[in-house]
């Protein structure tokens, strides 16, 4: 009777050990497939390499001298003159309401706060932790307080000085929302 | 006669003074060099993004020869706080401000006077770097003889000691075998690839003068002669063709399978024919455990077919999510910005990397080696070939936008603690059971979303209080055609 109990314990130990033990794959090994007939796309996928084109990428730029539908090329350059021109010629198409401002805050937290800081004073984490050597601009200076929405929109879109253009990451509406948030929330509560 | 002429001359020489002079020189020289390197470091950290020595105007003006046209005291003041100087009406400061598109220079209150002076000293002493000459052909990348390659290999593995010291073998940092954890030092294959690339590194120059702080520290005791570097280059060219050794893991489960297969056979033979062991329960026990083990292995292996949980491949660049998303606190959606309105979460292009890495030129762990790969890709226009980790079969449809935007699912729910991963690992198995379970449990934001207004029956049930929430399943989330079409 005793031996059976030992045996039983042994059996449980073995099964337990097996559950813990992982399989014999290395981390670089994808393992085996089973009838992968419909698992791999025959058509090229967005990021798959493509033998048809010389640069081997499936994603293409628009043919030269054309623009995609609904895309409005940005007319202002990343220069002080371009910035001044944009500030007077562009108008924020969005209305000021809580929804837009809250969405602007969400976007600001993703794209801006790590440099310009959650308070907008230019003391973002990347700078204060010493990972980014250059002090980001404060959005609470007198110059920025006087700047219209379009000025902020322009700088996000085209960049300024060391700041890289972010027009490719943030959609135009979201850029306007960030501008709304900066103007109506950040700059109104500088103590926050 | 001639000896007599020479000797007095020697005696007249002020030997003692020469000694003194030499000692002072020796004491001074490293001090001078240290001040220089201090200034260089400070310059590279604080100034080099806007000022390029000898490269003309960048954002800020050219600085070579600045001490000849500007007063040092004024320079120190200007560097400390240019804005205050401009506002105080200093005519020179205002002139500089106007000349440079009215872009104010950042203030550096954190630099001490001696540090600013070290920077100015560095600028003062700066000279265009003379084209380094090497006795060997720097551009030779192939055509090494067999003996050269072998010699290089032995040096790389530490079997032939280097002439000027450096005890640890190259391969103890520059792996020749794939490791399970992230090794920040470039592997031998990485080095080989970078060496073979026509725009890649000049191994002679980087061995003579390490490019980054990390490398300077790691290579402090290595002063390789050119001949030694040549041999190692020969080995690297060979290694580039051969590639890394394939990673092997200890085949625990296979061994377990075989051991129990043998044990079970022996038990069966003994049970039926030889009958050496008297106690039957031993045979039965072995057979029972054996069957359990074999069944377990069969089931687990069958389940893992076509599934790649824990897959964590080496990427072409040692991009660490732990550094970027964890330590740097960058939001996932900064780089994967299209996740909330696209099917794919997006693989960031080189442009996205360059938004920060136009300023961040070297990493804390990897020095410049990995970041240089972005610059090379950026220059050549060749996309970096990242290796896909999460793959769904083509017959299942998945869209990030539905989950991230409408569903408001956090990235970590499916991708796990990415901010703690140096090497990105597949966290979930992406099996159909996993999808369906989540769709059964997850509640939909039913009343906050106008889209669900038309679901009359569910709305009625909610109103009458028969149900208090709606799951994804109830709005058709586990219909076949939802994902398979």
Structure description:
The complex is a heterodimer of chains A (192) and B (485). Chain A is an all-alpha fold. Helix content of chain A is 42%, strand content 0%. Chain A has helices spanning 2-20, 80-89, 98-111, 113-116, 125-128, 142-146, 149-158, 172-186. Chain A starts with a helix and ends in a 6-residue tail after the last helix. Chain B folds into five domains: 15-125, Cytochrome c-like domain (Cytochrome Bc1 Complex, Chain D, domain 2); 146-242, Cytochrome Bc1 Complex, Chain D, domain 2; 255-304; 308-429, no CATH class; 431-485, no CATH class. Classes of the chains: A mainly alpha (192), B mainly alpha (485). The interface between A and B is large, with 56 and 71 residues.
Give the CA-CA distance, first to last residue of chain A.
Answer: 74 Å
**Beta-strand content estimate of chain A:** under 5%
Structural class of chain B: mainly alpha
How large, in whole angstroms, is the Cα Rg of chain B? 34 Å
Mean pLDDT of chain A: 84
Largest sheet of chain B: none
Low-confidence stretches of chain A: none
Largest sheet of chain A: none
Shape of chain B: flat
How many β-strand runs of chain A? Answer: 0
CATH class of the domain at 80-88 and 101-186 in chain A: Mainly Alpha
Keywords:
heterodimer, A: 192 residues, mainly alpha, Cytochrome Bc1 Complex, Chain D, domain 2, 8 helices, B: 485 residues, flat, disordered N terminus
Topology summary:
The complex is a heterodimer of chains A (192) and B (485).
Chain A: H1 2-20, H2 80-89, H3 98-111, H4 113-116, H5 125-128, H6 142-146, H7 149-158, H8 172-186
Chain B: H1 2-12, H2 15-46, H3 66-69, H4 72-80, H5 82-87, H6 91-99, H7 113-125, H8 146-156, H9 188-196, H10 203-208, H11 213-218, H12 226-242, H13 252-274, H14 280-304, H15 321-327, H16 332-335, H17 350-357, H18 369-380, H19 400-406, H20 411-415, H21 432-441, H22 456-464, H23 480-483
Helix pairs in contact in B: 2-7, 4-7, 8-12, 9-12, 13-14, 17-18
